[in-house]
Structure formats: structure tokens, C-alpha cells
Amino acid sequence: QILMERLNQSDSIEDPNSPAGRRHLQLQTQLEQLQEETFRLEAAKDDYRIRCEELEKEIAELRQQTEELTTLAEE
């Protein structure tokens, strides 16, 4: 009975001194780090998407200018 109580106490995730508690804390920390990294990556993705849209617009404008200049050169 006493051994079972000790086993249950030593494996509690609420106890940061128990192996399970330390592992739980470690996993929580890792989860927080991964969530922060995900947030940073999503922000970077949004920035790249916006930049890509700007570049696509610039390409379209440059193609239009090229067509206009080609037409003028042919005249």
C-alpha cells in the first residue's frame, strides 16, 4: 500500500520534482517555443505573400510598359 502511494506521488505531473512533472514541464516549454516559432513563421509567410503580390504587380506593369515601348518602336 505504501509503495503504491509513493508510486502515485512520484509520478504526478503536478509535482515538478517528479520525473513525470519534469517531463510535463519540459513538454510545456517545448510547446510554447513551437507555438512562438509557428507565430513567427506565419508572420514571415504573410510578409512574403504580400511581397510576392507586389512583385507580381510590378511584373505586370513592366510587361505593359514593354508592350507599349515595342509598339512605339515599331511605328
TrEMBL record:
Encoding gene, per UniProt annotation: Hook3
Name of the molecule in the record: HOOK3 protein
Organism per entry: Baryphthengus martii
Coiled-coil positions: 24-75
InterPro entries: Hook_C
Keywords: Coiled coil
Keyword Electron transport: no
Domain spans labelled Hook C-terminal: 3-75
Region (Disordered) residue spans: 1-22
Domain of life: Eukaryota
Transmembrane portions of the chain: none
Single GO molecular function: dynein light intermediate chain binding
